[in-house]
Amino acid sequence: MTEELISVIVPLYNTKAYLERCLKSICNQTYKNLEIIVVDDGSTDGSEHISDEYAEKDSRIVVVHQENGGLPAARRTGLKTSTADYISFVDSDDWIEPDMIECLWKALVDNDAEISVGRQFLDKGETSHIEAARSYVKGLLTKSEIPHHVIYSDDFKTRGVSPNFCDKLYKKDIIANRQYKLDLNTKYAEDDICVYGALLDADRVAFVDKPLYHYCRRDDSMTSAADNRYFERVTLFYLQMKQVFEEHSESELLIKKLNRYMIEFILRGVNKSFGFCFGNVIPFYLPPYKTLQERGARDIVLYGAGDVGKDYYNSLKQSGYNIVAWADKRGEYLATQGYDTIVPEKLKGLKYDALVIASDSEDLMKQMKATLVEKVGVDSDKIIAEYPVKFIEKLMEQ
């Protein structure tokens, strides 16, 4: 199979601590015919110098320095700099598996597709890599099928194709066409506008049934920070996304999904507005109340302190349940950040009615249950491992 030139675009802004890991993962790809474009968007922390040093070591790296203009502007610069017909993106604080580009290229060519999509890991600190929870389309979607997997599947509960820029390989024209139309003032969900637009423009989208991209979640990242202009930015997203959907023959279905999506954004904005260090004013996820009631369980151990666990913790306490312990693999570190957490090993000897696993990944819940039973000695009959119900789903049932 001929290796066409592929551009990998890396927008860069003040990620000195993570940049070398990112660039090494790209330079060490099994697919070698790469043009690696680093767009330094006005960095001031020394990461701009690291990118220049790597360009001296590897002739495939091109560094563009520009004044800070934001992520959409940096991506646009990368697209304009690219000389390839195929494009992939990697954020500078993330990293990729050694065969990511090769796998995506093979899927693109074998299926005569304009876009190929891989799966993701969600990395949190130094913990083991956890596959990000999304619906996983397999094989191929044709043009008539794609709208039914945008935002949500048609059940309005299952997540659709990931809107992330960075777990995909594109024919250049199909993503550039959408990115060039994006309002550069967009500061929220710019990925969704461009990626969903490109997916709807495509005739064929191929899927690789393998996690290839490591999305690294940081507490100090832009997406984690409070934003007092949140609702203004979400409105700009909505207007642009609505315009994209109105152009499509399945506009009625797509706009219905968009309106449902906006309720999630509004709930998220209310929670951010209160600025609590953890948990939500309005929960995204509801604990398995029905199962707890059926078992007559009141004294609870909670396992997992991610987004689901934070919601469970607050909801259970507010509902009068006794949280005997809140365990997480990162329990000791999280305790220093204000969480009432312990490591799983400290569960030994505690008395409780039920242990609730908090995760929105079925694969991860299986792993967590096995660890608790095999390494901690938890009675498997006490474990409740159910896929979480979303508050918004309950809301929409009314």
Describe this structure in words.
This protein has 398 residues and is of the alpha/beta class. The protein has two domains: 6-218, Spore Coat Polysaccharide Biosynthesis Protein SpsA, Chain A (Alpha-Beta Complex); 285-395, Rossmann fold, CATH 3.40.50.720. The protein is 38% helix and 21% strand. The chain has 13 helices and 16 strands. The protein has helices at residues 16-27, 47-57, 71-81, 100-110, 172-179, 190-201, 230-246, 251-274, 289-295, 307-318, 331-336, 362-376, 391-397, and strands at residues 6-12, 34-41, 61-66, 86-89, 95-96, 115-124, 130-131, 139-142, 168-171, 204-217, 285-286, 299-303, 322-327, 354-357, 383-384, 389-390. Strands 1, 2, 3, 4, 5, 6, 7, 8, 9 and 10 form a ten-stranded mixed sheet that branches. Helix 5 packs across helix 6 (190-201). The longest helix is centred in the middle third of the chain and has 24 residues, at 251-274. The protein is globular and about 65 Å long. Mean pLDDT is 88; it is low at 221-225.
Short description:
By secondary structure, the chain is of the alpha/beta class. The chain has helices spanning 16-27, 47-57, 71-81, 100-110, 172-179, 190-201, 230-246, 251-274, 289-295, 307-318, 331-336, 362-376, 391-397; strands at 6-12, 34-41, 61-66, 86-89, 95-96, 115-124, 130-131, 139-142, 168-171, 204-217, 285-286, 299-303, 322-327, 354-357, 383-384, 389-390. A hairpin with a 5-residue loop joins strand 6 (115-124) and strand 7.
